[in-house]
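Dear colleagues,

For the upcoming journal club I promised to circulate an example of a predicted protein-ligand complex. I picked one with FE2/S2 (inorganic) cluster because it came up in last month's discussion. The inputs are reproduced below in full, followed by the predicted structure.
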Amino acid sequence: MSHKQHNQEEAKIKPNESTLQSNTGSYYNVTVMDHFTNPRNIGEMTEEEADGSALLGDPSCGDQLRLWIKVQDNKIVDIKFKCFGCPGAIATSSMLTVLAKGKTIQQAKQLMDNDVIIALGGIPEIKKHCSLMGVGALHQAIKDYESKNLKY
Ligand code: FES
């Protein structure tokens, strides 16, 4: 599906729906809007600062996500991301970083896209694939970290 086709199906923003916390329709809820307009842990790390990193794209829409993790004592002590994508991609990536920060590597590996969707109080059905990018990038960054820290 091209980006143009995607935009035609874009979920709508409904800023005055302050009480809406779950959403299976076509509107972003207030939690999603909050993470879209005020993304947490946005930024980047240098190669020296990061212990693992990932670059992931969603081939269905062309959106892209870069993610960095800093690991100390087997825990993700810092995480940063930069996203070129739709509001759903930015909000789900932001929530993913909130969920991942402070987790052990083993706990972070258990995080799935559904955890992100639940933490956001739901996202529109047509935007559910956006959450896959954040989770995929986290798992890729962990693999990168592990590949650099393999002990023989
Ligand atoms: Fe591409 Fe959301 S439409 S990640």
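Two points we might discuss: Confidence is low (pLDDT under 50) at residues 1-9, 15-23. The CA atoms of residues 96 and 150 lie 25 Å apart.

See you all on Thursday,
B. R.
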